Amino acid sequence: MNRNAKIALVVGGVVVLGVGGFFLVKMLKRKKQERMSMGYSSSTPSSGGGSSSSSSSSSSSSSPTSDQIELAKDYRLWANSTDALSKKYGKKSQYDLDKTSSNPYNSYFERSYKAGKSDYEAYLSGGSSSGGSGSSTIGGLGSAIATNLTYQQTAGKKLAEDLYDILSGGGTQYAKYLKVKTKYQNKAVSTRKQAEREWNANKSKYGGSSYRTALSNKLGNYYRNISHLFPTL
């Protein structure tokens, strides 16, 4: 093979390698971009039904207001106040709604409330409701309302007694403040209001002072830190 042929072969090989390398690098870059694109799309939430975990957290995408939380707490108590209500809207129903929850305003509440809103509002207004079908409609809610009122009175009385035990017990003002805060912060508004009614109606039983006077006297300046837990009647 003469000298010129050798040179031509070397130059041709360099050109082939150069062109091949260029396309190889280009292909690798494209594959990397495709993998990145696939990774992004798989991490992006699906717009479809999704899993139970995604649906259960959907209501927490924006934090509920304090009024919404209190509504959820009161509704949960009502929905589980009788066996019939529990089977229709509460824990024993398809909604699996607990009586209490550390996160009361969630997807479980929203599903149950959507179904039971009209009956719940009828209960609040003191009227009856014909929602549902046949004899399984809680009999116009008359017995449910009476039972729930009894429950609220009982729950309020128990809370008043627990408060009295805390305030009249030993310990510093700070220790009592922490106990009262823990006891009250997860109670429904209706129960907290009923506790004050129970206390004021039976002041002699609870030391003679009114509800708020007793709190102020026993907790001192710490009372201001939790005054929001005691709603106006």
Describe the sheet with the most strands. Answer: none
Number of helices: 9
- Helix-strand makeup class: mainly alpha
The poorly predicted ranges are 36-60, 128-141
User: Radius of gyration from the CA trace?
Assistant: 33 Å
What is the CA-CA span between the terminal residues? Answer: 109 Å
Q: What does this 3D model show about the protein?
A:
The chain has nine helices and no strands. With 233 residues, it is an all-alpha fold. It has two domains: 62-145, no CATH class; 149-229, no CATH class. The longest helix is centred in the first third of the chain and has 41 residues, at 3-43. It is flat and about 115 Å long.
Summary?
This protein is mainly alpha-helical and 233 residues long. It has helices at 3-43, 52-56, 66-79, 83-88, 107-124, 142-168, 173-184, 189-201, 211-219.
